[in-house]
Amino acid sequence: MKKVFVICEKPSAVPKIAEAIAGRKVTQKELMGIPYCEFERDGKLFVVAPAMGHLFTLKSIKSLKDYPVFDLKWVPIYEVEKNAKNAARFIKALRELSKNAEEFISACDFDVEGSVIAFNVLRFICGSDVISKARRMKFSTLTREELKKSFENMLPTLDFEVINAGLARHYLDWYWGMNVSRFLSSAAEKAGNRFVKLSAGRVQTPTLKILLDREREIKNFVSVPFWVLKAVIEIGGEEFIAEHETEKFWEKEKAGEVYSACLGQPARVVEVKRRKINRNPPPPFDLGTLQSEAYRCFGFTPMRTQMIAQDLYQAALISYPRTSSQKLPSSIGYRDILQRIAKISPDYAEIALDLLRQQKLVPVEGKKTDPAHPAIFPTGEPPEELPSTHQKLYDMIVRRFLAVFSKPAMLESTHADLDIGGQRFFLRGQRILDPGWLESYGKYVSYEEQMIPEIE
230-281+409-444, what's its fold? Predict the structure, then answer.
């Protein structure tokens, strides 16, 4: 019987990928403590086994004392990182599980790192001769439906453009980070007569430069005093704040003159303008906007948000999170997802069912694209009990998805011009006429009504 070896990125993905390919429940086994699945399909024996992230890394062929170093080789990661000893078991188990395989499939995450992880496993464990016949599954969610479709429509070869980009990034990270760090440490040692370990990196060094420039800007800032004039207006027993037409007074004397002219004077309504405004829904989440919104709503750091989103992806609850896209292609199946969301919770049902009554579903989209993955969206798979942090982020992603299909919010803006002692002030207000998407996005909306009474 012909053997097919399928490599995935993490142990948690093994049962999902195996059951999607098999089309049925598959019993998980273990070899050396490493989980894997084995089953038959179409007269072939399939073995689905995981890596543990990167199992191989770059190492200098000669001593770093002789920097700059450009002669590198790939080695098992446990030879370089002391805390990666567990990788030895994975490598040994994968070598055994892939033995005598005739077909090879990469089912790691469809991104640069996932492609490199699979490529290194295949060439260093299975043998470089398998690379030319290996195929690639492409997916954005770990739902059974998409994984099944991905298997049935595999790329005939590995994604070599992505692999080469990933390999180049690893080499550049090493060349830049190791050599420049070694140079900085040596320079500091010569200057201070003691060893100081300094670090540089392809990402961290430009980021440090941005922070340095900002810190210098803050330190060099010279504050200039200014004065703001506002009037407290009483209308119908309530107090409202009106602003002077001059936003800032740079001269105290001038501000004092205007203040004196207005003090104790009644406010006369000169003109009232009202207009209706359509406020469109925000675009679907890419990783950056998800991180920004999670910080605003929950105080989550970007790293924490990314880790939680990755957990939700691994649980097949959302699509692949490390995307820069703000596009939702129709191929993801808008109606199917909304129908599944409606069954998850009564909190979602009313909104989702209302959206399903639309003849055509058209999402609001942003300008940003990603060639590998769409924007982040919920799969509609029912979540099991989630930690509170995961539930918060999941709820926000679901509500953002509902919001992008909702109609614009209708607002009424009021601008009243007032005359107080010959000085022009204005009073602003805004109220919701039709909540539209604001209702779908719920508590995550950053909007407050500024109600002012009817004045003429």
Answer: Topoisomerase I; domain 3 (2.70.20)
With a cut of 80, say whether residue 282 has pLDDT above it.
Answer: yes
Reported pTM:
0.86
Residues in the chain: 456
pLDDT at 258: 95
Architecture of domain 287-404: Orthogonal Bundle (1.10)
pLDDT digits (tens, 9 = 90+) for 53-62: 999 999 998 8
Q: ∠ CA(255), CA(256), CA(258), 5° rounding?
A: 65
DSSP code string of 332-363: G-HHHHHHHHHHH-HHHHHHHHHHHTSSS---
Q: Write out the catalytic residue numbers.
A: 320
CB 33 within 8 A of CB 11: no
**pLDDT of amino acid 185:** 86
In the prediction, which pLDDT does 219 show?
A: 95
Residue 190, pLDDT above cutoff 90: no
Mean pLDDT estimate for the chain:
94
- Quickly tell me which residue has 């990661």 as its tokens: 77
Nearest C-alpha neighbor of 321 from the set 307, 309, 308: 309
pLDDT at 64 over 80: no
> Per-residue b/e over 435-451, b at no fewer than 16 CB within 10 Å?
bbbbbbbeebbeeeeee
Structure token pair of residue 164: 């080469």
The pLDDT of residue 456: 66
* Among the four given CATH numbers 2.70.70.10, 3.40.50.2300, 3.40.630.30, 3.40.50.140, the one describing domain 2-164: 3.40.50.140
Q: Give the torsion sign (CA, 36, 39, 41, 46).
A: positive
Q: What is the DSSP string of 356-406?
A: HTSSS------S---SS---B-B--PPP-S--HHHHHHHHHHHHHHHHHTS
Cross-sheet strand order for the sheet of 423-434:
230-235, 238-244, 423-434, 409-420, 267-279
User: Long-range contact list for 52-56, CB < 8 A, 24+ apart?
Assistant: 52/10, 52/11, 52/86, 52/87, 52/90, 53/9, 53/10, 53/117, 54/113, 54/116, 54/117, 54/120, 55/87, 55/90, 55/91, 55/94, 55/117, 55/120, 55/121, 55/125, 56/120, 56/121, 56/124
**Residue 27, both tokens:** 């019993």
